[in-house]
Design brief:
With about 100 residues, the protein is mainly alpha-helical. The protein folds into two domains: about 5-60, no CATH class; about 65-95, no CATH class. The chain has four helices and three strands. The protein has a three-stranded parallel β-sheet with strand order 1-2-3, covered by helices on one side. Helix 1 (about 10-20) links the parallel strand 1 and strand 2 (about 20-25).
Amino acid sequence: MKIGICTPIENIKKMEEIGFDYIEPQIVSLNKMNDSEFFHFKNIVDNSNIKCEAFNVLFPGEIKLTGFNVCVFRRIRTVKPELSGRRTGNIRTPCQ
């Protein structure tokens, strides 16, 4: 069994020293990096004995995905109305 930890990429060496088998950084933090920062951290990971085997936090907090004030399906239908009620599996949402 491998043991990993959710932590930023900049902590990979410290996590390796502690004994973790892998790290799980946030995708949103990778998305915020410019190319130079990204390739710097990629180089750190490439030269480490542990790797990024999973990722977390796919969506930033400002993107609301659930709740009564959110309707992802309404936006989908606005862009592609023919998806309404078919490929979405006739899901009923509060905004219908």
